[in-house]
Design a protein that fits this description.
The structure is a single chain. The chain is mainly alpha-helical and 253 residues long. It is 76% helix and 0% strand.
Length: 253
């Protein structure tokens, strides 16, 4: 990473952030669905769900934060697809800028937009009664997990953004990611699930990430969940980064 790359990425990041500032509906739309899920599950289904905790919103929030990120990264694929089809990438290639800075600008824009959406969702959760006694170190640990998870999913989103044939195809890839938390410990304890579903739920990445964040919020010992969560996030991030950059090089070569 050199000064040329950092400067180019900063300029392109500013361009992407200005696009979001002109259309804040992107962030609002991203936050609406997880907030709707939170309202539905807390006020409609929450009374019938036994989680062993006094407050269902406290139990639910970590899963809702994961859904917020999965929903938000679809806009990265959407914006990349528009840049590809609009000839922006060809225009950038004719300029003396670091080529990888184009992708990094989109990734960092996704990170900023998702962090804003997460703050909005946590604000609504606080209004609904979410409470935690976690201190600054705990909040920083939660933020670190969410940032790592956002980067991992965003690099996945780069791949369909570069390769999709249609706008719908670029955005639709995120649907399985959005519904993955429903087959995890995000909404109900995995103990209540039938055998095969429980086995899948307990060994997929969302469950360890949700459990680690929930334990941090409730100030419980995190055990091995946080290390499993970090391993999942780091593994997905490395693989997605490598495949996304390989795809990008093939596209611009």
């Amino acid at each position: 990473m050199n000064k040329h790359f950092v400067g180019d990425t900063a300029v392109l990041l500013g361009r992407s952030l200005r696009h979001i500032a002109r259309s804040p509906d992107t962030i609002i739309t991203t936050a609406i669905m997880p907030i709707a899920f939170m309202l539905l599950f807390v006020y409609v289904f929450g009374g019938a769900i036994e989680t062993g905790t006094d407050s269902y919103v406290n139990y639910l929030l970590p899963g809702i934060l994961i859904i917020t990120i999965a929903s938000g990264i679809s806009y990265t694929a959407f914006r990349l697809f528009l840049d590809m089809k609009g000839g922006i990438f060809e225009r950038f290639q004719s300029m003396p800028i670091a080529r990888s800075s184009v992708l990094w600008a989109h990734v960092l824009t996704s990170l900023v937009a998702n962090l804003i959406s997460l703050v909005v969702v946590i604000g609504v959760a606080l209004i609904m009664g979410f409470r935690t006694g976690v201190g600054v170190p705990g909040w920083l640990a939660v933020a670190g997990i969410l940032v790592l998870f956002t980067l991992a999913l965003t690099w996945i989103a780069v791949i369909p953004g570069l390769t999709a044939k249609t706008l719908d195809g670029a955005s639709a890839f995120s649907y399985p990611l959005i519904f993955l938390p429903f087959v995890s410990s995000a909404f109900v304890p995995t103990d209540s699930m039938p055998g095969p579903v429980r086995a899948f739920a307990e060994h997929q990445p969302v469950t360890s990430i949700v459990n680690a964040i929930r334990d941090l919020f409730t100030q419980q010992p995190v055990g091995t969940d946080i290390w499993i969560a970090l391993a999942w996030c780091a593994g997905i991030l490395v693989l997605a980064y490598l495949f996304a950059n390989l795809t990008y090089r093939r596209k611009i070569s």
